[in-house]
Write a structure and sequence with these properties.
- With about 375 residues, this protein is of the alpha/beta class.
- The chain is built from 13 helices and 13 strands.
- Strands 3-2-1-4-8-6-9 form a 7-stranded mixed beta sheet, with helices on both faces. The chain has a 3-stranded mixed beta sheet with strand order 5-10-7. It has a 3-stranded antiparallel beta sheet with strand order 11-12-13.
- The radius of gyration is 21 Å and the shape is globular.
């Protein structure tokens, strides 16, 4: 029976990832020349080291300046973030500094509260967003907007950790490969018309689509989710299509986490909404569950299998199948995102990712992590911030 369990879990996982891999080959070329008014809305908390660079990049966009407004929602920063935003706002009339306040009416907190207050003050038809510690190219806005054809209500852009030519540590390179594989899976699913995930580092949506799902109201009890959960809301409750932007002219990048503790806290935060997907997209929930199961059966099930059967043949075959299909989708992603330099780290990453996925899956469900100098405790229906 143990044989069948190994084979069944591995076989289903192999088929799922194979489908996502095939999705990466689907065409995604339809573009528009429509010029929409765009609001770039960014939440920033204690970003004095990054916000100036990002604003410098945003004011150099190739998209017509008269059609762009840049709204920085200052989420209770305790450093010079506000001063830097004000300096730019004095020089550029299309930059707005929004100082966020506690919103007792919506009940939103943290990043979603900041984004919501920024969006409420926006005048654009299209909302584009990235993180305050990200870097954008001059062609970012123009390229993202070009994918908003008539039926499209949301677009997901690629973002990477680091970029070619930057000297990063081995730890940072491993994170970059890990994130690349996640983005490849997201693109494959979107190309197949089965949206799974997005990253707040590079995302855009029509304001009417945001309003059609009630903004963040349905997910206000979640600590994060301004990207993935919003995507699932638009998928479930509106007729709008969601597309991936594969054009390198829209690729963003940011730095990887510097310490193991910050990395694990980040991954716990990302995983904290996994169980909530049961409400929004049960297919996605099953996918997340299967990713957890395949890694659990390799790490936990293999020793038990060997003790019970005295052989390791079946676990090794299943592990080989797992590694092969993961390499295929990672390789294709590295080609699409022009990061073939990361592939040499695949053997080490493929082993290290298994225990970290188990860790993030278990402890992310518990919902305890640090984010932007605030400690959060996710509860079943709400969350609170530690004092």
């Amino acid at each position: 029976m143990f044989n069948y369990l190994f084979i069944a879990i591995t076989g289903i996982y192999f088929v799922i990832i194979l489908l996502l891999f095939i999705g990466l080959f689907f065409p995604n070329r339809e573009r528009t020349s429509n010029r929409y008014r765009v609001s770039v809305v960014i939440a920033a908390r204690n970003e004095e080291a990054n916000i100036g660079t990002l604003l410098s990049e945003l004011v150099q966009q190739t998209y017509p300046t008269e059609l762009i407004e840049i709204i920085i929602a200052n989420d209770g920063s305790e450093d010079r973030t506000g001063e830097i935003i004000d300096d730019f706002a004095r020089k550029y009339s299309h930059i707005k500094h929004v100082t966020t306040t506690l919103d007792t009416e919506t009940g939103l907190k943290a990043k979603k509260n900041a984004l919501n207050q920024g969006i409420r003050r926006s005048t654009g038809e299209i909302i584009l967003s990235t993180d305050a510690d990200c870097h954008v190219q001059p062609t970012w806005v123009e390229t993202m907007v070009s994918y908003f054809t008539e039926p499209v209500g949301m677009v997901v852009g690629f973002s990477q950790l680091g970029k070619p030519g930057i000297h990063d540590s081995l730890f940072e390179k491993l994170q970059a490969l890990d994130f690349l594989s996640l983005m490849a899976a997201a693109q494959g699913s979107l190309n197949l018309g089965w949206p799974l995930a997005a990253s707040g580092q590079n995302i855009g949506y029509r304001k009417v689509a945001f309003e059609a799902v009630g903004g963040f109201d349905k997910i206000k009890t979640r600590i994060s989710g301004d990207d993935v959960l919003l995507l699932q809301l638009i998928r479930k409750y509106t007729p709008w299509q969601i597309r991936f932007v594969p054009d390198p002219a829209a690729f963003n990048w940011t730095e990887a986490e510097k310490t193991l503790a910050s990395f694990l806290s980040q991954r716990k935060r990302w995983a904290s909404n996994g169980s909530y997907q049961f409400k929004l997209n049960r297919g996605f929930f099953i996918f997340i569950l299967w990713v957890f199961l395949i890694n659990a059966i390799v790490i936990i099930g293999t020793p038990s299998y060997v003790l019970m059967s005295g052989t390791i043949t079946v676990p090794l075959i299943c592990l080989a199948a797992k590694l092969v299909i993961e390499f295929l989708i990672t390789f294709k992603g590295a080609v699409v995102y022009q990061r073939l330099d990361l592939l040499k780290y695949f053997p080490l990453w493929s082993i290290l990712q298994m225990p970290y996925i188990l860790f993030a899956g278990i402890f992310g469900t518990l919902g305890h992590f640090v984010w932007k100098d605030r400690r959060y405790f996710q509860e079943s229906t709400t969350f609170r911030v530690a004092s």
